[in-house]
Write a structure and sequence with these properties.
By secondary structure, the protein is mainly alpha-helical. It has 11 helices and 3 strands.
């Protein structure tokens, strides 16, 4: 049996998260397209793991609406283009705006100021290295998770967590095209400043704008329209 404990992990620290992230990136790159089958045995061989974490990863992808189970075919990738990514970000927007609103009164101001300082440092030391991009994504992840944890709703935080692999995969695939990281950090600073003042509605609105812009950037930077057209030709 493969030594799964030595495998990489995803944004949520699990092997399942790593597998979900890898499959999503393959879809974004156009390596996997709508209608393609995802065969457990083939994926297990590709990633060097057993079928159990593959099955768990496919379950998470199905919950996100990225694959469906087709009788006598197994897991099949759903058509994925601009409309689908906007729809996924719309659901995320609803969840994270509510979490931000709820977190405003109880979120740890010290943790927020630490993230604000880290964001400021990253902006002042911007470069094109993979290390800088990875650090930017890590701070991005920590802010969104801090807010969801501070909402006081375990169910809400759990639902938001389901979208993190998608978001991190988008971040990995987009990189810093269209200055995405700089835009993210500027918007994060606005959210943080509103939260530090306990302005619940303003913080939620800033989060909503941030996620809407993220959806538009993802569609443009990933070139989803071009990839869909190319696959049909």
């Amino acid at each position: 049996m493969p030594h799964e404990k030595n495998k990489a992990t995803g944004s949520n620290g699990t092997l399942r998260g790593y597998l979900v992230n890898s499959i999503i990136k393959s879809i974004f790159r156009g390596d996997i397209g709508g209608g393609d089958r995802l065969v457990e045995q083939d994926l297990a061989a590709k990633f060097g793991v057993s079928r159990t974490p593959i099955r768990e990863a496919l379950g998470e992808l199905m919950a996100l609406g990225m694959i469906r189970l087709k009788p006598n075919h197994g897991a099949v990738v759903c058509p994925f283009g601009p409309a689908q990514i906007v729809e996924l970000y719309h659901v995320r927007r609803i969840l994270e705006m509510e979490a931000t609103r709820l977190a405003a009164k109880s979120i740890d101001p010290v943790a927020l100021r630490t993230l604000l300082d880290q964001t400021t440092d990253l902006l002042s030391s911007k470069n094109d290295s993979d290390e800088w991009a990875a650090a930017a994504l890590a701070v991005d992840h920590e802010l969104h998770m801090l807010i969801s944890r501070s909402s006081g709703s375990d169910r809400l935080a759990e639902e938001i967590g389901k979208y993190r692999n998608l978001v991190m995969a988008v971040g990995d695939a987009v990189g810093n095209k269209l200055q995405a990281h700089e835009q993210n950090m500027a918007e994060h600073m606005e959210v943080i400043n509103e939260l530090l003042q306990q302005h619940a509605e303003d913080a939620a609105a800033a989060m909503g704008k941030h996620i809407d812009r993220g959806a538009a950037t993802a569609v443009e930077a990933l070139g989803l329209k071009d990839k869909q057209t190319a696959r049909r030709l």
